[in-house]
Amino acid sequence: MKKGKEETSSHRIVTTDDAEVSAYLEIAKELQGVQAAPKPGEVFHGEKEAIAIIDFGSQYSHLIARRVRECNVYCELFPHDAPLKQIMSIHPRGFILSGGPASVYEKKAPLTPVGVYESHLPVLGICYGMQLITHQLGGKVAPGAKREYGPAVLHVSDERSPLFKGLPESLSVWMSHGDQVIDMPPGFKSSAYTENSPNAVISDGRKSFGLQFHPEVAHTPEGINIIKNFLYRVCGCKGTWTPGNFINESINSIREQVRRGKVICALSGGVDSAVAAKLVHAAIGDQLTCIFVNNGLLRREEPERALNTFRKNLRMKVVYVDATDQFLKKLKGVTDPEQKRKHIGQEFIKVFERQATKLGKIDFLTQGTLYPDVIESATPESKAAAKIKTHHNVGGLPAKMALTLIEPLRYLFKDEVRRVGLELGLPDDMVWRQPFPGPGLAIRIIGEVNRDKLEILRGADWIVMNEIKKAKLYREMWQTFAILTDVHSVGVMGDFRTYGYLVALRAVTSQDAMTADWARLPYPLLATISNRIVNEVHGVNRVVYDITSKPPSTIEWE
Question: What is the dihedral of CA 209, 213, 215, 216, to 10 degrees?
Answer without folding.
Answer: 110
